[in-house]
Amino acid sequence: xxxxxxxxxxxxxxxxxxxxxxxxxxxxxxxxxxxxxxxxxxxxxxxxxxxxxxxxxxxxxxxxxxxxxxxxxxxxxxxxxxxxxxxxxxxxxxxxxxxxxxxxxxxxxxxxxxxxxxxxxxxxxxxxxxxxxxxxxxxxxxxxxxxxxxxxxxxxxxxxxxxxxxxxxxxxxxxxxxxxxxxxxxxxxxxxxxxxxxxxxxxxxxxxxxxxxxxxxxxxxxxxxxxxxxxxxxxxxxxxxxxxxxxxxxxxxxxxxxxxxxxxxxxxxxxxxxxxxxxxxxxxxxxxxxxxxxxxxxxxxxxxxxxxxxxxxxxxxxxxxxxxxxxxxxxxxxxxxxxxxxxxxxxxxxxxxxxxxxxxxxxxxxxxxxxxxxxxxxxxxxxxxxxxxxxxxxxxxxxxxxxxxxxxxxxxxxxxxxxxxxxxxxxxxxxxxxxxxxxxxxxxxxxxxxxxxxxxxxxxxxxxxxxxxxxxxxxxxxxxxxxxxxxxxxxxxxxxxxxxxxxxxxxxxxxxxxxxxxxxxxxxxxxxxxxxxxxxxxxxxxxxxxxxxxxxxxxxxxxxxxxxxxxxxxxxxxxxxxxxxxxxxxxxxxxxxxxxxxxxxxxxxxxxxxxxxxxxxxxxxxxxxxxxxxxxxxxxxxxxxxxxxxxxxxxxxxxxxxxxxxxxxxxxxxxxxxxxxxxxxxxxxxxxxxxx
Length: 692
What we know:
Its main location: membrane. With 692 residues, the chain is an alpha+beta fold.
C-alpha cells in the first residue's frame, strides 16, 4: 500500500466531493450546470477509485484506467458545450466533437481489449499504445482549453480564465506523467502519487469560475469573510511550512552553528508572521484582491450595508459625527477623514478623525463647488479622471490637508447636509463605478442620520424655550404680587404718611420689593423690550455703556480715533442690552487689574464693534461646541446659559455677524460686524421676508 499516494488521492477525492456537494445543493436545472455537476462527480469518483486501488492491492487496474478515460471524456464534453456544441450543431464544431469522442471511445476500447487479451489469452500487449493514447487525450484537452480562450471575447475572459487555468494544469500534468512514462517505459511512482493533490489544488479555480458564470453556478452564497479567513489561514500554513523547511536546512547544513541558527531564524520568522497578520494595510490589500479576482462584484453589499448601519446606530457611546466619518472611511479603507456640515451661512469642519482639526476653514454655502456637489452628487477624487468632464475648481483648502483623496457629498432630500473629506486609501486604489455607487448610497443614508440629529437638537432647544416661557409665567406671577404690595402701600400712604412706624415699614417693604425685582430682572434681563428699530449712533452708545459699567472692575475703556458718525439700524435698548451683556461678561472674566476695551470702526461698509478683555480666555473646543449653546451655563445655578446665545441670535436678526477670537490665558475678543444705516434696514427686511 502506497501511503503517500493514498493520502494524495484521498485528499483529491474529498475536495472534489466538497465541490460536488456545494454544486448539488444549489442546482437549479441549468443544462450547463448539470454537465459541470456530472464532470465534478466523475472526477471525484476517479480519484476515489484510485485511492481505493492503492489501499487494496488486488483492485484491478482496468477500473482506474477506465474511470480516468471517462473523466477526460466528460471534461471534453463540458468544454465543447461551452464552445457551442449540441446535438443539433453543424459544421466544424460537430466534426471536432465526433473526432474527440471517437478517440475517447477508442482509448476505452483499447483498454478493454488489452485487458481481455491479458486475462484470457495470457498475452502481454505493448503498453506503449495505451500510454500514447493517454498523451493524446492530454493534448486534446489542452487544445480545447486553448480554443475556449481564443473564442471568448477579451472582456468576458475573466469569467472562464480560472477554469481554463485549472483544467490546463490538469492536462499539462497528465501530459508530463504519460510522456515521461512513454520515454522511460515506466510510470514514475512519485509523480503518480502527487496527482491527487494536484487535482485538489484545481478545485478552487473551478469553484471561482462557477461563481462567475450564472448559467453554471448554483445559488449558493460564499461569504467574503470566509474566503478572507481561509486565504489567511492557507497563506499562514504555507508560510510556516516554508519556514520549517528553511529551518531544517539551516540545522542540517549549519554544522556546529546549525541549532542556534535554526532557533534564531524561526524566532525571527515568527515575529515577521505576527507583524504581517496584524498589518491593517496588508489585510486591506488582501480583501481588495479577493473581491476583485474571486467574485462577480467587488463588494458584498448585504454585509457592507449591515455593517454600515450597525456602526451608525449601535455604538451610541461615540458621537454621531465620529460614527459617520469612520463608517464612510472604512468602506474604502481610508485611514482618516473630516466631516463638514452647514452652520448658518457656511460649511465648516465639525469633526476630524485621525487628522488635526483645522481652525478657521470655511466654505461659503453658495460657492460653485458646493452647488456642484449638491446637484451632481459627484464623488470628487484627487487626480481622478472624472473631473475632466466637470470644469469645477476644487477649493484651495483641499490641497492643504494631509494626503487628501476624496470629497463625498452627503445629500438628504436634495439638500447638501454636509460632505466628507477622506484621506488616501491604504491600498492605493482608484475608484470605479462600484465604489462611487456605494459611497453615494451610504452617503445619503449618513446624511439622513445627520439631518435627523440636527432636527432632534432643534426640537430639544424648542422644548427648552417652552420651559423658559413657562418659567417666565411664574416670574410674571411674582411681579403681579409685588405690584399688589406696592399698590396697597400707595393707597395707604395718604392716610399714614405722618406715622413714623408706617414710614419704616414702607421703607422695608420697598427695599424687599426692589431686591426681589432685581433678582428677577437679573434672570430675565431684557425680556419684554420693544422691537421698534431706529437709526442711532454707535460711538455715543459705547461711551454711555462705558459710564454705566464704570462702577464695576475693571472699568471699560473706549479706544479708537473718531471716524465720524457710525450708525446702525436696530432697537437701541435691545442692542444696548446685548452689548452690555458682552461688557459684563468681559468684566466677570477679567481680574481688577486687567482691561476691558470697546472699539468702534468701519470695515468695508460695515460697523465693526469689538469688546476685548485680557481675562482668562476660552479654548477653541469650548468656543466651537458650548459658547453659543442655549441653556449651557458655566456659572452654575446663577446663570441660565442664554446670554451668548441671545447675543448671536439678535446680531444675526439685524443682519450682522459675530466672530470670537480667544485663547486660554490671553483673553477674548468679540467682533460684531453690522450693516450701517439704511443698508442694515434693507437687509433686516430681506431676512423678515425670507422667514415669512
